[in-house]
């Protein structure tokens, strides 16, 4: 069948048969397998008139909100232009414009950009470039890190869940405690690392924010021992935390910076690896090596146009200031409403990247239930929260990928206070329920049974 009719082309059955049936099963178990008809800003519209509020943003992709009209218009304009695409044989205009803009926004010392299509590819480029520039092989990373799931990026992640049975990973990689300058110094003095990879705020590890001097000292230490500093701002960049880069407020310029996710406007894959002139020139150092690292889809017109339009929206709509303002509102409201509950350990964040950290209950009856479910699956407790918020309150969230006790709160930066109020009402009701041995825990049992049956 050849058809351009989208309804004729797509069914869940086809997806189940030919793509990822386990994903469909998981969404079914969580009662989150709904069909979205249209998405706009923070709102996801489902068949039958139901509206879901997005408090996940596709893991920080939708900073400008879903389907921003200016990003869509930019894409239409690019298509209408009928310009050269994927020639791989000319000097395109848009990558230069986007790279210039990114370097201006990121500031010194970033001068050059390598474009690709995903955060992982950006991290892979950083690995190669750091090795080439320093002439060293070993790589250092922080515990709890999430840098992507390609083999190189995966070699820089301590959580074996992601890498198990895909090995061997890259040799000569070491892990150091995030936020621990003494440990970093010891490690850097022992081995000649090409680079230390770090996220300024570790998103998937549970919205871990380091002390204010950590990143600046890290840079100093790396340079003292001849290693480069690679800052992974794939989730934290693009004004998510209020400033263009989280490292702008946490004080840590790096040698290589990786951006992706929100640069795409939520529509076209793109990543940008920014770096100093010295790093870039060490890689592309002769005519013969002018395309020594590249990828078919890097610098493609749709991605570049989307990036430019997205940056324009982020700036003209002042979404960084908004991230600061609404982010404070989120955490203040959460602290007032749920901060006093025994199972709420911490509420923290920067801008519109927040986390609610839970801890095991203190009362015996509920504690026994908690431990029982944790034995079945460490992620079960968090998934009951996610499921309840979605099913009962029409709010899309997720737990952090490397810390199942932290609920990530990351709505698009265009989120309004009334959206936040709805979220706070929903999580408050959910937190109240989890403190008594009734409904929340019987629901968890139902979830465990359904999971066992699929
Ligand atoms: N780095 C960070 C901090 C991420 O959160 C992710 C993805 O979630 C990546 C890198 C990998 O990006 P991608 O999924 O686009 O390959």
Overview of the molecule:
With 454 residues, this protein is an alpha/beta fold. Helix content is 45%, strand content 15%. It has a seven-stranded mixed beta sheet with strand order 4-10-9-8-7-5-6, with helices on both faces. Strands 1-2-3-13 form a four-stranded mixed beta sheet. A hairpin with a 2-residue loop joins strand 11 and strand 12. Helix 15 runs parallel beside helix 18. It starts with 5 loop residues before the first helix and ends with a helix. The structure holds pyridoxal-5'-phosphate (PLP).
Task: Compile the SSE list and pairings.
Layout lengths: L5 H4 L2 H7 L2 H9 L6 E5 L2 E4 L3 E5 L2 H4 L8 H13 L12 H13 L5 E5 L2 H16 L4 E4 L8 H4 L5 H4 L9 E4 L4 H10 L4 E4 L15 H11 L3 E5 L13 H5 L5 E4 L11 E5 L1 H7 L17 H16 L2 H20 L5 E7 L2 E6 L5 H13 L3 H14 L1 E2 L1 E3 L2 E7 L7 H18 L4 H15 L1
Parallel strand pairs: 3-13, 5-6, 5-7, 7-8, 8-9
Antiparallel strand pairs: 1-2, 2-3, 4-10, 9-10, 11-12, 12-15, 14-15
Helix pairs in contact: 2-3, 5-14, 6-14, 7-13, 10-11, 15-18, 16-19, 17-18
Bound molecules: pyridoxal-5'-phosphate (PLP).
Pyridoxal-5'-phosphate binds next to helix 7.
Strand content: 15-25%
Question: What order do the strands of the largest sheet run in, or round the barrel if closed?
Answer: 4-10-9-8-7-5-6
Task: Report the average pLDDT across residues.
Answer: 94
Distance separating the two termini: 32 Å
Bound molecules: pyridoxal-5'-phosphate
Radius of gyration: 22 Å
| Helical proportion, percent range | 40-55%
Low-pLDDT runs: none
**What form results from the Cα inertia axes?**
globular
């Amino acid at each position: 069948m050849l058809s351009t009719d989208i309804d004729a082309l797509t069914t869940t059955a086809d997806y189940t048969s030919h793509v990822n049936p386990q994903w469909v099963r998981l969404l079914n178990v969580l009662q989150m397998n709904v069909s979205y008809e249209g998405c706009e800003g923070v709102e996801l519209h489902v068949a039958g008139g139901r509206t879901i509020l997005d408090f996940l943003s596709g893991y920080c992709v939708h900073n400008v909100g879903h389907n921003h009209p200016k990003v869509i218009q930019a894409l239409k304009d690019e298509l209408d232009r009928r310009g050269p695409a994927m020639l791989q044989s000319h000097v395109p205009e848009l990558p230069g414009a986007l790279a210039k803009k990114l370097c201006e926004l990121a500031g010194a010392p970033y001068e050059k950009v390598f474009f690709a299509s995903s955060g992982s590819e950006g991290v892979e480029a950083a690995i190669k470039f750091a090795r080439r520039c320093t002439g060293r092989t070993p790589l250092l990373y922080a515990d709890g890190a999430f840098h992507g799931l390609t083999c190189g990026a995966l070699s820089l992640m301590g959580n074996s869940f992601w890498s198990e049975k895909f090995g061997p990973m890259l040799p000569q990689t070491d892990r150091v405690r995030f936020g621990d300058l003494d440990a970093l110094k010891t490690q850097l003095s022992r081995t000649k690392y090409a680079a230390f990879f770090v996220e300024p705020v570790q998103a998937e590890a549970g919205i871990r924010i380091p002390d204010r001097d950590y990143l600046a000292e890290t840079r100093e230490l790396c340079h003292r021992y001849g290693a480069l500093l690679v800052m992974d701002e794939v989730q934290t960049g693009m004004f998510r935390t209020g400033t263009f880069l989280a490292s702008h407020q946490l004080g840590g310029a790096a040698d290589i910076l990786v951006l992706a996710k929100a640069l795409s406007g939520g529509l076209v894959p793109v990543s940008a690896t920014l770096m100093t002139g010295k790093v870039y020139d060490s890689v592309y150092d002769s005519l013969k090596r002018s395309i020594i690292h590249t990828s078919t889809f890097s610098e493609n017109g749709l991605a570049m146009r989307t990036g430019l339009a997205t940056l324009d929206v982020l700036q003209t709509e002042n979404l960084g200031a908004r991230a600061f303002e609404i982010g404070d509102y989120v955490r203040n409201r959460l602290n007032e409403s749920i901060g006093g509950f025994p199972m709420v350990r911490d509420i923290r964040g920067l801008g519109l990247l927040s986390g609610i950290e839970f801890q095991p209950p203190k009362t015996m009856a509920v504690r026994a239930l908690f431990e029982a479910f944790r034995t079945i699956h460490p992620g079960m407790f968090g998934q009951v929260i996610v499921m309840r918020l979605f099913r009962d309150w029409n709010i899309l969230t997720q737990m952090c990928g490397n810390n199942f006790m932290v609920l990530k709160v990351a709505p698009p930066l265009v989120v309004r206070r009334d959206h936040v109020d709805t979220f706070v009402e929903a999580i408050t009701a959910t937190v109240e329920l989890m403190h008594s041995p009734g409904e929340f825990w019987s629901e968890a049992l139902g979830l465990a049974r359904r999971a066992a049956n699929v």
